[in-house]
Every structure is written in structure tokens, then in C-alpha cells.
Specification:
Blueprint: H1 8-42, H2 46-52, H3 56-63
Length: 69
């Protein structure tokens, strides 16, 4: 019985690592999605902005944000 390894600690560490990796990937996905939608926003003309209820200032304000916000 002395040769048995306690796997509960390994399981907890693996779970924490897995959760951290999932959070990192989710954050990366969100940042890429924000960048994609901001590129689309940059392509809109004045009429499209008006249809969305956005002003040119709103658009510029959104485009100035860094990808992580």
C-alpha cells in the first residue's frame, strides 16, 4: 500500500490548469471577436451608422479602444 500514489492532488491541479486554459482561450476568442466587429464597424458609411443609431463620434470612440476592452 505504500507504493500507491495520491492522485487527488494531481486531479485538482489538472482541473485548475484546465480551467485556466479555458479562461485564456475564451478571453482570446472575445478579443478576436471585438477586433472583427470593430473592423466591420470601420467599413460602415454614414447611412449605415444612422440605421444603427450611431454617430461618427460613437464609431471613432469604439475604434480607438484597444482589443482587450
Amino acid at each position: 500500500m505504500k507504493d500507491l500514489q495520491d492522485v487527488s492532488a494531481i486531479s485538482i491541479q489538472t482541473h485548475a490548469y484546465s480551467r485556466s486554459l479555458r479562461r485564456l482561450l475564451h478571453g482570446l476568442w472575445q478579443a478576436m471577436e471585438r477586433a472583427r466587429t470593430r473592423r466591420l464597424l470601420a467599413q460602415l458609411d454614414q447611412r449605415d451608422l444612422a440605421d444603427l443609431g450611431l454617430s461618427q463620434a460613437d464609431r471613432l470612440n469604439e475604434l480607438e479602444k484597444p482589443f482587450w476592452r
